[in-house]
Amino acid sequence: MLADALEHLVRGIVDNPDDVQVTARPARRGELLELRVNPADLGRVIGRAGRTARALRTVVGSLTTTPVRIDVVDVDRR
């Protein structure tokens, strides 16, 4: 559910919504959501000084009572 919510939010922000991928994995302290976007949209997802990424983390974090970590993965640096 959290992965779907994050994917929906990010698809509304980016220019290439078909390239958005969210992978959910269990982590040691909660759940880890890995977000992959088109490299051209990376700046749009992070935002100025990380404001957009912080807002996405806040919104998704408010949907659950368990800890959630969201990582924006740079696909060029795999």
What sort of overall outline do the alpha carbons produce when their principal axes are compared?
A: globular
Order of strands, main sheet, comes to 1-2-3
N-to-C span: 26 Å
Helix proportion range: 25-40%
Number of strands: 3
User: Describe the biggest sheet?
Assistant: 3 strands, mixed
H/E series: HEEHHE
CATH architecture: 2-Layer Sandwich
What is the count of helical runs? 3
Mean pLDDT: 90
Number of domains: 1
Category from helices, strands and their pairing: alpha+beta
In the CATH scheme, the class would be Alpha Beta
Spell out the CATH superfamily: K homology (KH) domain
Strand content: 25-35%
Pfam family, one: KH_KhpA-B
Family: Belongs to the KhpA RNA-binding protein family.
Protein name: RNA-binding protein KhpA
InterPro entries: KH_dom-like_a/b, KH_sf_prok-type, KhpA
Main attributes?
78 residues; alpha+beta; GMP Synthetase, Chain A, domain 3; 3-stranded mixed sheet; 3 helices; 33% helix; globular
What's this entry about, in short?
GO terms for molecular function: RNA binding. A probable RNA-binding protein. The chain has 78 residues and is an alpha+beta fold.
Topology:
Layout: H1 2-11, E1 21-27, E2 30-36, H2 42-46, H3 51-61, E3 68-73
Parallel strand pairs: 2-3
Antiparallel strand pairs: 1-2
Structural commentary:
This protein is an alpha+beta fold and 78 residues long. It has a single domain, classed as K homology (KH) domain (GMP Synthetase, Chain A, domain 3, 2-Layer Sandwich), CATH 3.30.300.20. It contains 3 helices and 3 strands; from the N terminus they run αββααβ. The protein has helices spanning 2-11, 42-46, 51-61; strands at residues 21-27, 30-36, 68-73. The chain has a 3-stranded mixed sheet with strand order 1-2-3. The model has no long low-confidence stretch (mean pLDDT 90).
